[in-house]
Design brief:
The chain has about 130 residues and is an all-alpha fold. Helices cover about 65% and strands about 0% of the residues. Keywords: Membrane, Transmembrane, Transmembrane helix.
């Protein structure tokens, strides 16, 4: 008798479990997830803890002298207040699909999560040059 989960594939579920890339390499299925993508999502999730302070202080941006002529101020506020939406959407989708999807799907959801910080950075750079 053979033992182990890949011994006799009598069901489709066992057959799929035998052919997973993690098991072929001798590791678990979570090892197929890139550690870099996971670290990036942890950093993005941690940035959400710091987000309320700049969001509160950004309301004073509209009262700054000389801000009336700067068109980037409303864009910066929109990017700042919309920051959590792509970070949460990308992070939640990444976490749900971390075992079921290939790495390119995880990279795509990481890209979605990075659009929040990218929009803030772009508005900051364009606002400094204006």
């Amino acid at each position: 008798m053979e033992d182990g989960p890949c011994a006799s594939p009598r069901s489709v579920r066992r057959l799929r479990a035998c052919r997973s890339p993690g098991r072929l390499r001798g590791g678990t299925a979570t090892q197929s997830m890139s550690k870099f993508l996971l670290a990036l999502h942890v950093a993005l999730g941690a940035s959400l803890l710091l987000w309320p302070a700049p969001a509160f202080l950004a309301l004073f941006l509209l009262d700054a002298p000389g801000i009336e002529g700067n068109p980037m101020a409303p864009a910066f506020l929109a990017a700042l207040f919309g920051y959590p939406v792509p970070v949460l959407a990308g992070g939640i989708a990444f976490w749900r699909l971390r075992r079921a999807r290939p790495r390119r799907h995880l990279a795509a959801w990481t890209l979605v999560a990075c659009t929040g910080p990218a929009a803030l950075f772009l508005c900051w750079v364009l606002g400094r040059s204006a």
